[in-house]
């Protein structure tokens, strides 16, 4: 196992527009959600060399795959005005193009994600200084919550090209604070890989949920190891 220090992330304040047609008399969600990142670094022998098992795994995959660490964060004010945030979704779309003519061997996927699940007592992960990478570049973060637990933060669609996380309002925990998120991306060797990001949110108005979304321009290129 190795510890991966979570980097400082550039931040942007979002303005999410309604997804409803026609648009209701609900203003855009402006200034209530801040996106940190995304930032990507390649997984290299230098990074994993302290762990012989991880080094051997990276060497075994070197002929077919590149791996990347992708970091991002969502920050929400704890004292935001009504209506309260009901859910937030951070969604990624991973894609790859061959450097030269031809087809890629496979599409990039979220090989491992952290956090996988958090309950109300542990949802806010702002103070976590590091993520822990274990065997086969899998994150070690305590796994799944127990039966009956109220899930406030959950990774979704792991091992797919459209991964993401959902943050949920529950009776035990309102949405607020900073949520640090990270994934290992497995991409075809030598391909130009990108990660497009979108942030969605819902607010509850009585018994009605209103949906908002912002697509982040310019997908992030994931730089291959040198």
Give a structural overview.
By secondary structure, this protein is mainly beta. Helices cover 6% and strands 50% of the residues. The chain has 2 helices and 14 strands, in the order E-E-E-H-H-E-E-E-E-E-E-E-E-E-E-E. It has helices spanning 45-48, 52-61; strands at 2-5, 11-18, 29-42, 65-76, 85-97, 109-114, 117-119, 130-133, 151-156, 164-168, 177-188, 192-205, 208-215, 220-222. The strands form 2 sheets. Strands 2, 3, 4, 5, 6, 7, 9, 10, 11, 12, 13 and 14 form a 12-stranded antiparallel beta sheet that branches. The longest helix is centred in the first third of the chain and has 10 residues, at 52-61. The protein starts with a strand and ends with a strand.
Using DSSP, what is the number of strands? Answer: 14
Main beta sheet strand tally, sense and closure: 12 strands, antiparallel
Question: Could you tell me how far the N terminus lies from the C terminus, measured between alpha carbons in angstroms?
Answer: 23 Å
**What value does the average pLDDT take?**
88
Strand content: over 45%
Taking pLDDT < 50 over at least 5 consecutive residues as the criterion, the unreliable ranges are none
Spell out the helices and strands N to C. Answer: EEEHHEEEEEEEEEEE
Q: Give the radius of gyration.
A: 18 Å
Helix fraction by DSSP (H/I, runs of at least 4):
under 10%
- Class computed from helices, strands and strand pairing: mainly beta
Label the overall shape: globular
DSSP helical segment count: 2
Characteristics of this structure?
two-stranded antiparallel ribbon, twelve-stranded antiparallel beta sheet, 2 helices, 226 residues, single chain, mainly beta
